[in-house]
Design goal:
Strand content: 25-35%
CATH topology of the largest domain: Glutamine Phosphoribosylpyrophosphate, subunit 1, domain 1
Helix content: 10-25%
Structural class: alpha+beta
CATH architecture of the largest domain: 4-Layer Sandwich
CATH superfamily of the largest domain: Aminohydrolase, N-terminal nucleophile (Ntn) domain
Number of domains: 2
Strand order of the largest sheet: 2-3-1-9-8-10
């Protein structure tokens, strides 16, 4: 039986200066240090890394950032604005950032938690992993509510998992770790407003179609040449809502 390829990262943040180290089956690993923290990180091939010696910042990115946000730009945005730089990060990602100058570690997930980061605390140490299985210990106990949610719908809601000792960083949030302290902070929140109250339904459909097309365009690299068609159907009509073909192939959009 072929096993799925391993992905993501595993990190141990230690306040006592003596990290035990990640699971032996993980890939290459590195150690980052702040005045009061030591961070051991192991990554797999799908994780991008950057060490900025000038700013004293190490970044580990699992996933993809859109809108031209590269790791050097990310570090610059963080150095300029602090954790609020996450408001401008779009994509499917989780990231770990070690800031030696500020003596802290930041771990974050995207707005939909599409690349989860699981978290477990043990004394003066915090473990973070893309995979829940990496944080299971012989003393782990089930979270009964989490297990019930998973069995009934296949999803564990909020920041819970199926284990009592393990949580997940909530969607649109980051965890700030300093010695002896952990803060969970929301940088984005979905809000229902009255902005579109009274807007005709066909206008809303057109806006939704435009947003869908633009979201797909963002995920297509400049050097790609796909033949792409998007369409949707309502229960009342068999007419496509919106479609387009790649201009690179000479196609034209249709409404």
């Amino acid at each position: 039986m072929r096993h799925p390829p391993a992905t993501g990262l595993f990190a141990e943040v230690s306040g006592d200066g003596r990290p035990v180290g990640p699971p032996a089956e993980c890939g290459p690993w590195s150690v980052s240090e702040t005045p009061n923290l030591r961070v051991a990180v192991r990554t797999f091939a799908d994780v991008q890394t950057l060490r900025d010696e000038v700013r004293g910042v190490d970044v580990f990115l699992h996933g993809q950032l859109l809108d031209g946000m590269t790791l050097p730009r990310l570090v610059h945005a963080y150095a300029t604005r602090g954790p609020s730089f996450l408001n401008d990060c779009n994509g499917s990602f989780s990231l770990l950032l070690v800031d030696a100058g500020a003596d802290r570690v930041l771990a974050a997930t995207d707005r939909l938690q599409s690349r989860p980061l699981h978290l477990r605390e043990e004394g003066d140490r915090t473990y973070l992993s893309s995979k829940l299985a990496d944080l299971v210990t012989p003393t782990s106990s089930p979270d009964l509510a989490g297990v019930a949610w998973y069995l009934s719908s296949g999803v564990v809601h909020t920041a819970r998992t199926v284990l009592e000792e393990v949580s997940r960083i909530p969607c649109g949030s980051y965890v700030l770790l300093t010695r002896g302290r952990r803060d969970v902070i929301r940088y984005w929140r979905f809000e229902i407003t009255s902005e579109y109250a009274g807007t005709p339904a066909d206008w809303l459909r057109d806006d939704a179609a435009d947003l869908l097309v633009e979201s797909v365009r963002k995920r297509i690299a400049d050097d790609d040449a796909p033949l792409l068609s998007l369409s949707a159907h309502s229960g009342e009509s068999d007419q496509p809502v919106r479609g387009f073909r790649s201009p690179r192939l000479g196609g034209r959009g249709s409404g």
